[in-house]
Amino acid sequence: MASNPALENYDDVSSSDSEFDPPFLQPVNKEELLLARAQKRAEKKAEKHAKADVFKRMGDELYGNGKFEEAYIPYLEATQIWPSNLEYYIRLSMTYAKLHWYVPYDLKGT
Hints:
Blueprint: H1 5-8, H2 30-64, H3 68-81, H4 86-99
Helix pairs in contact: 2-3, 3-4
Region (Disordered): 1-23
InterPro entries: TPR-like_helical_dom_sf, TPR_rpt
Keywords: TPR repeat
């Protein structure tokens, strides 16, 4: 079995090459750590919002086809993923109204 000649000579590999230090050996300051943490949070938030938007579009598709009982499920899921987005609650309430899933408010209290 012939071995690979490129792997036989270890003298070609320089251990003092400072361009390729593993990430854990590179100096990191506080600002870089804070920036990396902020970027990671922003990425997670964007992923969460994208996932919620997928559910909203699913609900929109079903709502547009008149499938209101099926449409409320993706809207409800979207509100649970991104609870601060009022648009999802509005769409969910429109679906509830189409299904008559509400209690009418009686102003007289009778």
